[in-house]
Design goal:
With 497 residues, this protein is of the alpha/beta class. The protein is 57% helix and 6% strand. Helix 1 crosses helix 3 and helix 2 packs antiparallel against helix 3. The radius of gyration is 28 Å and the shape is elongated.
Length: 497
């Protein structure tokens, strides 16, 4: 690769050796890559310590260029993991092959340190023009540098943003990389576009997957205490729980998005998670941050009309989730205990929302049962690593040699949860609530079958990395839920006669 220069190295009138074709200048964020290095470096820095956010504010006060410089100095970059716009990369390599003497220049507002790493990895760039500690090479600043060096109409430019209009006004050819119909339409009204690198916009289904709407089924746990008390005719309770479900689901989606944003690097090395919307670049990181803020705002607004105790548990849920995302997910065993506790907190929130009686049996069952599922999740991840001949998951505290121990703990925890159900059935409370409590004993063999089957599927390496998703899609699991419902209905049927 030829010598690379930054914005501070560029001098008016400087020439770049070239053939009959003018230099081809390429933007980085959103054009060459489907991500934004400023946001990625911010997320990595904050992930190290949430208090780093205050340093970001201090650096931003001194200017955006200074912020980029400081974040780049604090960050590492794995350019091989970044999601690239393959159509643009293929085009650049074809241009270099067809005309080796033509200069291809990476011209970006990202900091020079990170930009150079990307340029070296792609391997087609002759030069890098990028932001430094003092100069933010964006919009008018970028247009001036390129026009001073190559003259008006003396270069071609590939970009993707409204700020690139100022550069295209001075370029010979306008090349656009975008997934936005609106941006493309307005750019076509202003310029004659010579080439379009069209990236398909995210579908509504992709946004729903990013929100993890399928995970909202977990929040059905809010209704469990209410149903166990058989308050079926309590209309006010149903309405309260409905809004509790909506607010908790929106809050959970916000935490899922935040977790995905913090886990970009580890997701990109995971054979399944690398397809997630933010890790793959299908949905821009800035859009994800806006979605997260919007979800939290709506959820908080709903909390204002719900019991304060419920809002308090929701706040505790958020704190534990954030602590898990930042640090605690790396601590073996503690991470799965926290995941189990998040499920149990949903049940506690449901109790507090409708002033249901506290149930030792329900909380004990929840902790053991969901601990078993959390362990199945970790075993499934390690099984996938083992297939790829890797030893440790990125961002996790487990190694593949832990498989036997985790499987043992998971099976034991699952069967203990069934034991709790058996003890609950024999309690005085059940005798007073169910007409034929003996029928409830049928729950035990059904649950033993389901727990055993879950762990057999997991041990064979066929479990989805999220057992809840597996259960939702698994016909046998759905049939098991139906059977359990029929058993409970049969046990309480005399109460309706």
């Amino acid at each position: 690769m030829n010598e690379q220069v930054t914005a501070t190295d560029s001098k008016p009138g400087a020439a770049v050796e070239q053939g009959s074709l003018p230099p081809l200048c390429v933007d980085l964020d959103g054009t060459l890559i489907k991500s934004d290095l400023l946001i990625e470096s911010f997320l990595r820095f904050v992930k190290l310590n949430p208090l780093h956010f205050f340093w970001v504010l201090v650096w931003l006060y001194r200017g955006k260029a200074h912020l980029k410089y400081k974040l780049a100095a604090q960050n590492w970059l794995s350019p091989e993991l970044i999601p690239y716009n393959q159509e643009v990369v293929t085009y650049l390599r074809a241009q270099k092959k067809a005309c080796p003497e033509r200069a291809i220049i990476l011209c970006t507002a990202s900091n020079e340190r990170l930009a150079r790493q990307v340029a070296e990895y792609v391997g087609v760039f002759d030069e890098v023009i990028a932001s430094n500690e003092h100069d933010n090479i964006m919009g008018s600043a970028k247009a001036k540098i390129l026009t001073d060096r190559f003259g008006h109409g003396g270069f071609d430019y590939i970009g993707n943003d409204w700020n690139d209009w100022k550069v295209w006004s001075n370029a010979r050819q306008v090349l656009v990389a975008t997934q936005s119909d609106r941006f493309l339409r307005q750019t076509q009204q202003r310029f004659t576009i010579d080439r379009i690198f069209r990236e398909q916009a995210p579908s509504p289904r992709e946004y729903l997957k990013a929100l993890r709407v399928h995970q909202w089924t977990k929040n059905a746990l809010l209704f469990i205490p209410f149903l166990l008390e058989q308050r079926f005719d309590d209309v006010g309770g149903w309405i309260t729980l409905f809004f509790c479900f909506i607010s908790f689901s929106l809050l959970a989606s916000a935490t899922y998005i935040w977790n995905d944003l913090l886990d970009l690097d580890s997701d990109r090395v995971n054979i399944i998670k690398k397809k997630r919307a933010f890790a793959s670049g299908r949905i821009p990181l800035l859009t994800g941050i806006k979605m997260m803020i919007g979800l939290v705002a709506i959820s908080v607004l709903i909390f204002m009309f719900l019991p304060p105790a419920f809002a308090g548990v929701a706040l505790l849920y958020t704190v534990i989730t954030l602590a898990y995302s930042f640090k605690l997910k790396k601590v073996p065993i503690l991470d799965v205990c926290l995941l189990a506790s998040l499920y149990t907190l949903r049940i506690i929130a449901g109790m507090l929302a409708v002033s249901a009686a506290w149930s030792f049996w329900l909380l004990a069952f929840s902790m053991f049962f969901f601990l078993s599922l959390a362990l199945a999740k970790r075993v499934s991840e390690l099984k996938n690593l083992e297939k790829r001949e890797l030893n440790q998951a990125s961002g996790r505290g487990y190694v593949t040699s832990d498989l036997d121990l985790l499987q043992m703990l998971g099976v034991v925890s699952g069967f203990v949860s069934v034991l709790v159900v058996a003890l609950y059935i024999n309690s005085d409370k059940v005798a007073s609530m169910y007409a034929v409590k003996e029928v409830l004993w049928l729950l035990c063999p059904v649950l033993l079958f389901w727990v055993g089957r879950i762990w057999m599927v997991t041990s064979r390496g066929k479990m989805h990395e999220d057992p809840i998703v597996f259960a939702i899609r698994d016909r046998v699991s759905l049939q098991t839920i139906l059977i359990c419902g029929v058993i409970v209905a049969a046990a309480m049927s005399a109460n309706f006669l």
